[in-house]
User: Fold this.
Amino acid sequence: MAIKFSILKNSTKSRARLGILKTSHGEVETPALVPVATQGAVKALTNELAEQAGCQLLIANTFHLHLRPGEQVIEKMGGLHAFMNWPRPLMTDSGGFQVFSLGFGRDYGMGKILKEKEKSGRKIKAGQKPSFLKITDEGVHFSSPIDGKKLFIGPRESMAIQEALGADIIFAFDECTSPIADREYTVAALRRTNRWARICVQESSVKGQVLYGVVQGGKFADLRKESAKFIATQKFDGIGIGGEFGDDKATMTKMLRVVINELPDEKPRHLLGIGHPGDIERIVKEGIDTFDCTAPTHYARHGTAFTSNGRIDINKSAYLKDKRPIDPECGCFVCHDHSRSYLCHLFRSREMTAGTLLTFHNLFYFNKFVAGIRAKIRKGLL
Assistant:
């Protein structure tokens, strides 16, 4: 079966909505967090543990799986679901984020969301080229971060790789622009993204897979609006919203509103790469259905736990004498079975188990948090 998206309830207080995303690998209750499984695994967890933590849907990385083991290997193993032994729905991105992260992101040492110290007035101008890859109207020439081998990915190549991987939901190839790209550069990148979107629609043909287009346009509201209108007219099954949204949360909210005003209500909306706890309710209230974020797993590996009373750094020596669970209000097995003292000891001893336990807790916390938001929508509170 292809995807089927049903809206169960629209909020009367915001644009939030409850939905069910039905795929051939099961259903997803939305709004939903989509944890990142870059190499076909949620870092530090088995896929069984990821499911036990409440994960409904994962997103894997097309670019990195193309590098190793290669989509041909995965296809011969029965596709990504069988290869991972993950029974639930899967997404794969397009490789578009790597156009930024291995390009201008690498050149300037920044992510797609600017930190305060990075707001120095630097600009990427029209015609400027990144040092480590070449962007053309046909696609992108990369150098492998593993061995330096040259490779090319354009819209046709991205579709072929994603079809071989076999995820339920795939994304059109796009250029994720830098947060310091100027207007002229962003216009040129948007033209490329639109051209690639048309090609992706033409090339996508596998039954059972559905294709999401990606809205870009950077921090420029009129370009975001133009992009959303264009993507909405193409034969996409759902809509991804990518790139950066300006320098603060209020700007992000306004930009999402501009985009969603132009999108069809009946299609699912996925926000790429945003989902800190402080963002989640904000983006859901604007009408986002699914969103992926590395925060729960990335922070866990560095010893940061998310709790009902805020973040704690379990590396701190004060926690060695703390008998309490990470979060007394959490229902996960880590909080039931282990103390802050034990977790602190594991991190300070650099035990691999530390990352596993804290990753499980953080994902359980995030998924429970989002389930609470769904409950609020159901009760008419959000």
Q: What stands out?
A: The radius of gyration is 20 Å. Residues 352-378 form the longest helix (27 residues).
